Amino acid sequence: MSFKRFSLIVSAAAVVLGFAACTTVPPQPAAPQAALPGAARPELLRPAKFSTLPGWDKDDLRQAWPAFLESCKALLRKPDWSEPCTIARDVDAASGSAVRMFFEAFFVPMQVLNPDGSGDGLVTGYYEPLLRGARKRGGPYQTPLYRVPDDLLTIDLAGLYPELKGMRLRGRLVGNKVVPYPSRADMGRTHALAGDELLWVDDPIGAFFLQVQGSGRVRLADTGETVRVAYADQNGHPYKSIGRYLVDKGEMTLDQASAQNIKAWFLSHPARQQELLNANPSYVFFKEEKLLDPSQGPKGSLGVPLTPLRSIAVDPRFIPLGVPVFLATTEPGSGMPLQRLVMAQDTGGAIRNPVRADYFWGFGAEAGEKAGRMKQRGMLWILQPKQAIESRITAVK
């Protein structure tokens, strides 16, 4: 899901609702008037005040400051962001009052609305998992993670159709025709990826969920090192939830379709494991990266490292990448408030609709436990630079 999990593709018309994590809500086709990624749609924003944001006064904004500075690395050259991002360099990051004063002085909260005018939507979670693996196949390490195959074509449509900026077709060349790239099931039957193995791991369902998360770490038994595997590309098929597949087959109810329960079902039905995996035709390819700073998350779609508990994935058709977003939701499986300032630094194939977010829990088993159970309702407020609002008013006049 860089962490561009299942990036936008023309053939991705629908994603089926299923288990929690980053791939649970069906994407809706973009409305004809939808803004290009990076531009919010004014008709889906409602002005608000900081005093009305639930929990704004209780959030320790200092914890969001490093993530905001990462966003500024990507936003600094945008006219509306030049002033706040430049001034941010001189803010005392250790002072909660200084950080709060900065946000309240330079930004205006705008509540994000759905097209029907409602203000709440689904909030799920994702994380960076750890797998056990090796560079060479052997022993328990029988499940491959693949690099991008040489015959995968990625066609950027923006040159001919500017309104499709950010959308790509994926396929391969057969004779003089570009045809769809094989699905997960087709690749397995034909061994089409033989020779493209990047690493080998000991857990097929873990490898599958690694593709859902988009990035992770692998501890290599044969070399003793831990490396990061990051999203490199995808086969062009739309993601389909294996959680929804199990629900449709009557194997579990929708409420039971958590990542944890799906893994348990997988282990207790060895004869049907490949059937379950093949229910999702989408396939993600990885690249290896050095783990320079274990405290940092992988890079998101914005191109900057994700910050645990302070980064989210959004639908960039409605929420511009990089912007601060105030999130008001609840802890996984409970009614305890989770209200904090986060940064929109990632995207996801199932993150569709305006009021829709995927919350980055960080790395490891505890993060995975929370991400796997997170399927909450929540509300979002974009913090827009005051300069952008003033410019828009001037343009209208």
Descriptive account of the structure:
- This protein has about 400 residues and is of the alpha+beta class.
- The chain has one domain: Barwin-like endoglucanases (Beta Barrel).
- Helix content is about 25%, strand content about 25%.
- It contains ten helices and 17 strands.
- The strands form three sheets. The chain has a six-stranded mixed barrel with strand order 3-16-13-15-14-17, surrounded by four helices. A six-stranded mixed beta sheet has the order 5-9-4-10-11-12, with helices on one face. Strands 6-7-8 form a three-stranded antiparallel beta sheet, with no helix packed on it.
- The longest helix has 11 residues, at about 65-75.
- It is globular.
- It starts with about 45 loop residues before the first strand and ends with a helix.
In short:
The protein is α+β, with helices and mostly antiparallel strands.
Q: Number of DSSP helices?
A: 10
CATH topology: Barwin-like endoglucanases
So what's the CATH class? Mainly Beta
Helical percent range? 10-25%
Strand content: 25-35%
The N- and C-terminal alpha carbons lie at a distance of: 41 Å
| Strand line-up of the largest beta sheet | 3-16-13-15-14-17
- Rounded to the nearest angstrom, the radius of gyration is 21 Å
Number of strands: 17
Could you name the CATH homologous superfamily? RlpA-like domain
Q: How confident overall, as mean pLDDT?
A: 86
Q: Any low-confidence stretches, pLDDT <50, length ≥5?
A: 1-38, 393-397
Order of helices and strands: EHHHEEEEEEEHEHEEHHHEEEEEHEH
